[in-house]
Amino acid sequence: MSELKNASAPATAFPGGTILGYPRIGRMRELKKALESFWKGASTAADLEASAASLRGENRTRLAALGLGRTDSSIPSNFSFYDHVLDACVTFGAVPTRFNNLRAADGSVDLAGYSTIARGVGDKAPLEMTKWFDTNYHYLVPEIGPETEFQLNSTRWVDEFVEAKNDGFVTRPVITGPLTFLYLAKASDDAPSGYQPIDRLDDLLAIYVELLAAFADAGAEWVQIDEPILVADTDADRAEVLANATKVYDALSGAQNRPALFVAAPYASLDDALPVLAATDVEAIGLDLIRGSVPASVDLRGKTVVAGVVDGHNIWRTNLDEALAKAEALESLGGTVTVSTSTSLVHVPHTLQGEEHLGAELVAWLAFADEKIGEISTLAQARAAGEGTVSGALSEARTALASRAAHPGTNRADVREALAGVSPADFQRSAYSVREAAQADRFNLPELATTTIGSFPQTPEIRKARAAWAKGELDDAGYEAAMKAEIAAVVKLQEDLGLDVLVHGEAERNDMVQYFAELLEGFDVTKNGWVQSYGSRCTRPSILWGDVARPEPMTVRWAEYAQSLSSKPVKGMLTGPVTILAWSFVRDDQPLATTANQVGLALRQEIADLEAAGIGIIQVDEPALRELLPLKKADQRSYLDWSVNSFLLSTAGAKDDTQVHTHLCYSEFGEIIDAIDGLDADVTSIEAARSRMEVLPAIKQHGYERQIGPGVWDIHSPRVPSIQEVTELLQLAKDSIPGKQLWVNPDCGLKTRGYAETNESLEHMLEATKAVRSA
Ligand code: GLN
Ligand code: ZN
Prior knowledge:
Blueprint: H1 30-40, H2 45-65, E1 76-77, H3 84-92, H4 111-119, E2 129-131, E3 138-140, E4 143-144, H5 156-166, E5 172-176, H6 178-184, E6 186-187, H7 201-218, E7 222-226, H8 238-253, E8 260-265, H9 273-278, E9 284-288, E10 304-310, H10 320-331, E11 336-341, H11 360-365, H12 369-385, H13 391-406, H14 413-420, H15 432-443, E12 449-450, H16 460-470, H17 476-497, H18 514-519, E13 521-524, E14 531-534, E15 537-539, E16 542-549, H19 556-564, E17 572-575, H20 577-582, E18 584-586, H21 592-612, E19 617-621, H22 633-651, E20 659-664, H23 673-679, E21 683-686, H24 696-702, E22 707-710, H25 723-736, E23 743-744, H26 755-774
Zinc ion (ZN) binds near residues 453, 663, 665 and 748.
């Protein structure tokens, strides 16, 4: 164990506790509004800068008021206009060559250029967007090649530190670490095959050294370097990752001119990376003690250990006694322990203020970002001055937790009994060959049957009607009539186009999860609980707090109405249990598997009611199946087991001649192909257009007897695919999958598209299908 090198590191770092990051979007989504106004040309870059600066100012003032130290580097500065990984790209000069025109002579990129890299322009694709670890936050994927010239191209991070300092705050800049940055990057289009971004580690390290010096010169005492890649099992060889961790943190901690270094590793446990980091001279290490447990036998003497004992990724009030016990257990490893959140708070809403409609009882069980900071302060004070000094807060927390545990809604006998009554047979349908024959008889569909994924464009009129209904300006009958008119128009459009299997278009759904959350018991919905999903986009996850039950049918009357308008089958449309869990804040007081099965039973009842109403084809969407996949390989098997089981519990009650579809919205199939097989859906639609059917040969090789609809139209942009293009994709698909197993559909739902491109694209899809059918 080496001695502390950097004399400037205070003896007790972050004495009042800290957080790994704070929501960036603003309590009233100020950043969203400022960005979108800038993009529309309604405000200038200077206006956007001013809004962002005032948001940062308000945030640091609030954080100090909530108890974080004003001048001891406990307040993180983790602002970003769009995404922190994109910030790292423009700071380090990692801008793809197709965007060279956006760079000034010194390599820097202004806010307009930054936005263009995030959002694309003309035929220049933006950086690809993908999910950040196992969260619903999306980051932009860096593109690195031999042509990437790393340079310190932006002073923004340092400027933001100085801005705070001039305001009387010494904050802690938060940056993405070099390992996470390079391992998440993909090789640029210009890179030779086999090129790996991590090959550029030495070049990039030199820039980090320069950046650390700039922070030190500006007066920063600490910098937080986020390295969540160290907690994840990736395709990279683990020994190589660990060797690189040693290299990076030896080099950075050995730099002459630098602030103290705090390496944070949220989302799971560091495992074998912890002793590796501990052996370097970094001053502080952050551990996620919500996902991981207190490590055994690692020597952390001389380090500050930032104990992530408050869940940064979920919204439940912390069990403060347990948190204190964890922090204390951590002391045995020899470091100086301080308390923190397990992850950045960007994953939770700002505040419970304004959510009083949830009821005092539920509110007392919750802690959003600001309330979590209160918990951190309580914990820090309990540790510093004794539990007696915060006995009121501690007992209040105990009372709230006890009330949650004792609440009848968290432990309903009817729900528990229903689940206990489930038997293995309830998870199994008849053999596929039996179902296939029954369904062929019933529907008599052509080869290459055509359909869509579910939603049709959510027009301004639909949104207006919903808003008016929510405000009470439109009565139930008026809203019902407006939605039915929309459904009728969507059905007519599909009949005119000549699709084989129709949908009702989902006009009545504000969101594919919230719609169900509002109709199921055990859920509640916030008014202002927005969480950044990507850029200016936010979602408002529902709160799944109790046992789940379905008081009455949720989708039947809409499905029945749509089916009454056509002699062709109209698909019933449900969101699957895993996706409902993934896109909600889920109770943490029982295994996810139990909660998923409760949702599964509610969906099973819905499917029975849809069947009784004459609906013959039912789609259960699971776009989030991949997202919840645990970061550690060792945990993946059991996740896939329970997630697949909850889907089977939802769907396996269906009759043989009911055709069950599922939709999964991504293309990384290789990893979970067995799980997809396990879902046992009669038809599975997937995203495939952008990757040009790349996954199909693998599926063929794996052997897949059921039907599959690889998307032939990338709906993520308004671009209309030509007949020729779709024809080629269908031919490619037929090379791997026999025509009778193939469906023709877009990549995903059409809710974000306009009607102009929707009509034309669907026409092209149908023309191409005709051509390939008769070829
Ligand atoms: N049925 C949904 C829709 O079409 C599926 C959306 C999704 O996969 N995210 O909108
Ligand atoms: Zn999708």
